[in-house]
Amino acid sequence: MNWMYSLPLYVVHILIIPLLLIGFIRKVKARLQNRRGPSILQPFWDIAKMLSKAETISKTASGTFRMAPMVNLSAVFTAALMVPWLGVPSPIAGDLFLVVYLLAAGKFCIGLAALDTGSAFGALGASREAAVSIHAEPALVLGLAALAVHAHSSKFSTLLAGTPGNELTTILAALVVVAAWVAVIADLSRMPVDDPTTHLELTMVHEALILENSGRNLALIEYAVALKTSILLGLIGQIILMGAPRHSIGTTYLLTLLLLAIATVVLAVSETVFVKLGWKRVPNLQSFGTGAAILACLLVALKG
Amino acid sequence: MGLPQSFEFGAVSAALLALWMVGITDFRASVTLFGIQSFVLGLVAIAIGARHGEPLLILVGVAVIVLKGLIVPYYLIYAGRRIGCRRDSLMPVSAPTQFFIALSLLSLVLLLRPLHAELPTSTLPAVGILILGMMLMITRRLAVSQIVGFLVLENGIFLYTIGQSHSMPIVVEIGVLMDVLSCVMLAGLLAFKINKTFEHIDVAELTELIG
Fold first, then answer.
1. Radius of gyration over alpha carbons of chain B, in Å?
2. What is the mean pLDDT of residues A3-23?
3. Closest listed residue to residue A171, CA positions, set A12, A302, A29
4. Cβ–Cβ below 8 Å for B1 and A283
5. Percent of chain A topping pLDDT 70
6. Between A125 and B173, whose confidence is greater?
7. Cross-strand partners of A155
8. Which stretches of chain A sit within 8 Å of chain B by CB?
9. Which residue of B has its CA nearest to A174?
């Protein structure tokens, strides 16, 4: 499919899916906790409300603080156009290293902004978030790199094509899904690494990072996080589909949406069932992801 | 996926389950993983038996699923609950480090790959499980966790034998299973006794003589 069709498709989905996904997670979580919960559309109203509100900005903050959310959102938006997270070829042929480090650059900017305000909480959140990202990175990069070496290309379109029915592809996809899932829940500050609903200073990671942001800035950050959630979950969906037989683009697209819904339900269930891990035990969890990624690399190195 | 592939898939996933067990310290979780591993190996035995038309091997597979997949894990969890042990702590090497050491050991096993053409498909995973079982036995400090390590090691041997072209005679296979069962029962009783006498089952602390 050429970019004339895929670009509008992607832009429409980028505007709708992320907030819908977040609303869906909250709804499922509320139902599991025996609450009725807000409407699925609530994140849209939240963003609209935040956009119309005035901002409170620390006097010590410099221009970095104002710029960072925009830089972050543009990085995530670019990544969203490069990853085929809808199961449809992406408008821009994305390279895995470019995408992973674009997302990391966005996160770095948010960290800078948190340090810029000079508040103790921002610095605490930034250092914690950086530590979690450093632990999560090898799992995601090594896992995707194993797929890249297997496909002899670091472009997402070739890397995710796979060879269906091949036993190596199946095992590889399973290992990379484990690695990517562990990395992604840490990267998105989800349970059991971080609790997205907490505002207790002892435990919050991502919330401490964005504590100083309000109004428009906060809206941009919340939206960027939602978009990143859908990209990464969609990417995991694509890796799962690698092992499945080839389908037409339409079927793949519907399967991807289904997998996105399943992934959000899994997230919601795990957030209801698990408790947040102690800060010192987070690396233990991450080591499983890294281990799975290393195994995937080993398999590729020895087989092909 | 054809039968040969699914059979290799089962063997490899059993090895991965053993690897997972090295990385965790929670006793109940590792016993559960052991149960799943035995279940997978039982299915592998049934698959091989069905492929070669050996009804006895199918019988062994069913026996493994029932004995090592259900009865032994239930007994161990019961024993663990009665003794009151939850997780292995104070190990000389921490669990994540052990996990990476085990990973490197497994990759050393994978270096035997060039010999692969002459070996049956399940040999490398079997050797891997054997090594991981030994590692579990060496590193754990709770007596009951060491029993789990021994059982994992035994699973490795089982996978090795059923992968050979001339597998062990049924009498030996069933005999080994019974041995394992009685061994676990005895070891469990011993653990109860140790716990009663010393009020803990940490093997590193078992240095004083109590009559």
1. 18
2. 88
3. A302
4. no
5. 97
6. A125
7. A95
8. 165, 167, 170-171, 283-284, 287-288, 291, 294-295, 298, 302
9. B13
